[in-house]
Design brief:
Structural class: alpha+beta
Number of helices: 6
Number of strands: 16
CATH topology of the largest domain: Fructose-1,6-Bisphosphatase, Chain A, domain 1
CATH architecture of the largest domain: 2-Layer Sandwich
Strand content: 15-25%
Largest sheet: 7 strands, mixed
CATH class of the largest domain: Alpha Beta
Mean pLDDT: 94
Order of helices and strands: HEEHEEHEEEEEEEHEEHEEEH
Shape: globular
Number of domains: 2
Length: 273
């Protein structure tokens, strides 16, 4: 079943990419979801409808969690659950930037076991199955071997690197991509050394990318260093650090204790860095 689940996600992600390409730079209708939740486009909603119909038709006993669907406590009773972001990086999509993605994951008892991140405008398809490695377009992935923070290439929001969050100068180079899922994949393929978000992240933004990093040999945890779990009643992860083990451990050890606490307030999953 795990291999079949991954094949199901791969086909669904490809279909999502085709819809996104049709709307990309074509002035899709856009709405603000209100309450600080950010924008949504007709493309997000069309992709969400397609994914929900196709995936649940194939796995009717699985739960469903998506950024663009009304949540239901029914998923909490399911052994397996789909965790979906139809478009991660909606603002980038609206602005005609190519670094948005589709994030699709399946969690079993809180642990992600199959994942796909599709970056359609870059023709990149990242995938992983628990215990079977991570791939991009058929090529095996591996995280970098960077052992420490000095000169490390870090994907993060710029505010996360403010001096008040650190016990000592971190020495890392700041980089940014609007999609959290894509940031994790860029760590998995070794293009960047680590990814950090001090703000709580929605599960649909990071579930797929986390497995891809893990299967590429990296370490992923909350900013406290604790393991992540998915399909929570409140579907958020309390910050995240991802990268090679030694580097990820050093980042966690160098953060101020206050930076490791959950930050209250409305979370914008695609906040610009």
């Amino acid at each position: 079943m795990p291999a079949a689940d991954l094949s199901l996600l791969l086909a669904a992600a490809e279909a999502a990419g085709k819809i996104a390409k049709r709307h990309f730079r074509a002035s899709p209708e856009t709405w603000d979801k209100g309450e600080g939740q950010g924008p949504v486009t007709e493309a997000d909603l069309e992709i969400n409808r397609m994914l929900k119909a196709e995936l649940l038709a194939a796995r009717p006993d699985y739960g469903w969690l998506s950024e663009e669907s009304e949540d239901s406590a029914v998923r909490l009773q399911r052994e397996h659950v789909f965790i979906i972001d139809p478009i991660d990086g909606t603002r980038a999509f609206i602005n005609g930037e190519k670094s948005f993605s589709h994030s699709l994951a399946i969690a079993k008892n809180g642990v992600v076991v199959a994942a796909v991140v599709e970056v359609p405008m870059k023709d990149q398809r990242f995938s992983a199955m628990r215990g079977a490695g991570a791939m991009c377009n058929g090529t095996a992935l591996g995280v970098s071997h960077k052992p420490d923070m000095a000169g490390a290439r870090l994907l993060s929001r710029r505010p996360d690197l403010r001096p008040e969050h650190w016990l000592a100068p971190h020495g890392m180079q700041h980089h940014f991509r609007p999609s959290l899922a894509y940031r994790l994949c860029l760590v998995a393929n070794g293009r960047y050394d680590a990814m950090l978000t001090l703000r709580p992240a929605w599960e649909w933004d990071v579930a797929a990318g986390e497995l891809i990093v893990r299967e590429a040999g990296g370490q992923v945890s909350t900013v406290n260093g604790t393991p992540t779990r998915y399909n929570n009643r409140l579907p958020k992860v309390s910050g995240m650090v991802a990268g090679p083990k030694k580097l990820a451990d050093q980042i966690i050890a160098t953060l101020q204790p206050a930076a490791k606490k959950p930050i209250a307030g409305q979370i914008s999953p695609e906040e610009k860095g």
